[in-house]
Amino acid sequence: MGKWSGWWLLLLLAAAVTVWRMPAEAKLERPVAAQLLAAVEGSGAKGVSIQVRMRAELGQASGPAQVKALAEAWAHRLDIPVPQADRTRKSNLHVYQVLFERQGVQGQFQVTGVPRQGAYDVYLVLSLTGSPDTLQYIGVIQDSFDKALTKADMIPQISTCVRGMYSVKLSVDQQEGKILAIFRALHAMELERLRDDTVVSISGYTPAWKPFIALNDKTKMNLQVATHRDSQSGTWITVGTPIITAEY
User: Fold this and answer.
1) CB-CB contact of 242 with 159 (8 Å)
2) Is the same domain home to 44 and 56?
3) Tens digit of each residue's pLDDT (9 = 90 or more) over 60-76
4) Which of 43, 67, 133, 243 has the most CB atoms less than 10 A away?
5) In this predicted structure, what is the pLDDT of residue 239?
6) Is residue 143 part of a domain?
7) Where residue 106 sits, what CATH number does that domain have?
8) Per residue in 118-160, pLDDT tens?
9) Which of 106, 138, 158 is the last residue of a domain?
10) Helix (H, G, I), strand (E, B) or coil at 29
11) In the chain, which ranges are continuous DSSP H helix?
12) What's the pLDDT at 90?
């Protein structure tokens, strides 16, 4: 009986180690949006909005009709309503777009044909915008789009922005302190810094995720944090990777 008790004890210990390690491993694999939101809220700000933007090159089209066909084919593939031509643009671009909503997440699908040497370079852009309450659904929709693009041998360029607000108006020095706290939370190294009377922006690199943009042959950047003291309310903070793609 003592022998079997020893084996059961070892099995229970192994199970306990497995259960203990799983949350840690899951934490390391959290979506980028979740990591950014945690860093923003950890600095004392209230999370306000999350935006994920995916961009992919669809190749060349011979003419406007083929641009339209690509737009409709990809909308069908992604289970999105048929996009309509954007008549508001005063240019020679051919743009098809549609707004949609899923589980509280606002989405925009856009296919653009850019004329080049008698043909059109075609680009697909998917934007997802929601609140911290819809973070999980943003991740689910993003994964479904990513899988559809990957299945077509396309690697999308993904940018993520999280916006939050501090309830007080922070001085420029205080803004820098908040930004540097986020850099420490994400184990990031500072590369560039800009500031004026109301805005601070610091860019850097973190090993927390792989995608980056190259500043030169040796320097990688994949994190930008900016703050802006609002004249009416408190202080806005925006965190983006690889750079901020929204207004701040």
Assistant:
1) yes
2) no
3) 999 999 999 999 999 99
4) 67
5) 98
6) yes
7) 3.30.2030
8) 999 999 999 999 999 999 999 999 999 999 999 999 989 999 9
9) 158
10) coil
11) 2-28, 32-42, 64-77, 135-151, 172-185
12) 65
Looking at 158, 190, 223, which one is the last position of a domain? 158
Alpha carbon distance 205, 222 (integer Å): 5
Q: Which residues of 86-125 are buried (b: 16+ CB within 10 A; e: fewer)?
A: eeeeeeeebbbbbebebeebbbbbbbbbbeeeebbbbbbb
| Residue 215 covered by a domain | yes
Q: How many domains does the chain have?
A: 2
Domain containing residue 70: 52-158
CA 116 to chain centre: 30
Query: Are 166 and 44 in the same domain?
Result: yes
Question: Are both 154 and 67 inside the same structural domain?
Answer: yes
Tokens of 215: 């500043």
Cβ-proximal residues to 37 (8 Å cutoff; 6+ apart), any chain: 47, 50, 132, 135, 162
Q: What is the pLDDT of residue 95?
A: 95
- pLDDT for the residue 10: 36
153 in the same domain as 67: yes
Supply 150's token pair. 């990957």
- Angle in degrees, 0-180, between the axes of helices 135-151 and 32-42, rounded to the nearest 10: 150
Q: Is the dihedral of CA 142, 143, 147, 148 positive or negative?
A: negative
- The pLDDT value recorded for residue 231 is 82
Distance from C-alpha of 121 to C-alpha of 62, rounded to nearest angstrom = 9
Interior CA angle at 243 toward 24 and 195, to 5°?
110
Which residues, given as ranges, of the chain have pLDDT below 50?
A: 1-28
Residue 50 β-bridge partners: 130, 162
Task: Write down the pLDDT at residue 27.
Answer: 38
> Do 172 and 136 share a structural domain?
no
Q: For residue 86, what are the contacts with CB-CB under 8 A and spacing of at least 6?
A: 95, 96, 97
